[in-house]
Task: structure prediction
Amino acid sequence: MTKKQDAVFIYSPELLQYKFHDQHPFNQIRIQLTYELLKELDCLDDEEIVSPRLASDEDIALIHDTAYIEAVKKAGQGELPEHIASNYGLGTEDTPVFSNMHEASALMVGGTLTAVDYVMEGKANHALNLGGGLHHGFRGKASGFCIYNDSSIAIEYMRKKYGARVLYVDTDAHHGDGVQWAFYEDPDVCTLSIHETGRYLFPGTGNITEKGQGKGYGFSFNVPVDAFTEDESWMKVYETAIHEVAEYFKPDVILTQNGADAHYYDPLTHLSVSMESYRFVPKVAHELAHKYCDGRWIAVGGGGYDIWRVVPRAWALIWLEMKQKHVSGNLPKNWLDRWQKQAPLTLSPSWEDPENLYPAIPRKQEITEKNYQTLTKALYQIRSHKNASF
Amino acid sequence: MIIEEIMNRNVHTMYADQTIADALTLLNRQKIRHIPIVNKEEELVGIISDRDVRDASPSTLDLDPDKALLDSPVSSIMEPDVITAHPLDFVEEISAVFYEQRIGCVPIVEKGRVVGIVTESDMLHTLILLTGAHQPSSHIEIQVENVSGKLAEITSIISKRKVNIISVLVYPNNDDKYKNLVFRVQTMNPMGIIQDITDHGHKVLWPNMPGVTE
Result:
């Protein structure tokens, strides 16, 4: 048997085929940018790269309705009438129909399943599939750029094949609704989502009062933070929540969704975090995976719509954390030179964001205080349960 | 929207000669807070709330309570003058009744008989549905001039982007010359719509910077 690897990186140029159209904000060139950045740093060896497998219909049906899968297949062949497509959330502004959309989506799902198998079979401690993290996909409906929900499928797959208790941690700026609803009544899957409040932002759910239902009550956690939240408050909320939830749930494996759209530059959301948070997020997840799960940690991508300045750096930091490599200062010059020609914006030259990334946020104190209160309410049950047992 | 679409048809009623102890049991078992009281013809004759029953119950601090009080008929504590509504009443009008009368529930009466009940929380739930926060969507708030045709103008801009509208609210601006329109639209990416609306000369209040909008 070959030696257990620290981490594997799921990659194939075919992952870029999940593409709606040129003007669509969801653009998987992000994965290639990250891949090349890591290659340029000499931090990604060929033996660490694993090709994604294609998810079977049976895999996808762990979560999705067969009628929906058939609809996606037909849509990808141009055979699904528009009025039927719209019932499935397909052919909309958010999830337009594109050629071979079933195959492209099944490959993304397969990538997350490949990552799962590497970790659960003990071939690697950690695995990263940046193509995954499509947390808005529902059983029978596409939503918010997501067709198949790879994370939900992977969690159900780990439940069935490995009997594992899974902690899902979602730090995308949008609420992880698809995953939450898929396991809302399941006490063996715990979901924690930290996101910008849904009062204004898509999808609108993710309130602290959504705590699960039936046997799953107390296994869904939501911490909706205020618009314009900055690093300090965001990291405090994240660190406290993930520590307390992990201690309470004691998972066998951690799946993190690493949307990189809470950054100040992101055009779709209104949070104000910087690269400092994106260095911190995988660090804490990594520590907890070793503390509770013997290292078992699967990370997927997600949102992130400043594909040039934010996502490649944020996502590279996940891999570098898995490999325990520290970077700071300037990005590799070759990478900057190569991509600056294509980028419509000036690329960020260094791993850190500048001090004056954005003008001072009015009402910072109030935002911080409100987030703290939200966090206290979100964790109320864990804390009262803990106090009662001593 | 009319009341019969939101009312609860499974109403727990009591007869006027049943006891306060019976009422206490029913309130606890069904986890309800109001009981309409009816006569043998099932006509509404009064209503009691959990508070009326509590007021009539002995104090939990009283070590030697007079249990006989609990055997009194509910007619002795019921409010005979009941505010009711009809199944065809409008939800919006009845919500104003809740607010003005400061009451917790309204029995729905048709031909003298109780056919349903609407509580404050049913009302709130309905209003939440009306604001559309129950489906994946983004929130956009726009200030438009207070003249005819502005809502149509905005909705046609949105429809050109093939985005479904989940809900619309129109509410007054502090300045009479304007009105605020609030949409929930079924898209994760409202940027295109916001650009189009701005290009047509309207002011988008949200998304925007804090402090700037106030």
Observations:
- Chain B has two domains: 3-128, 134-206.
- The first strand of chain B starts at residue 14 and ends at 15.
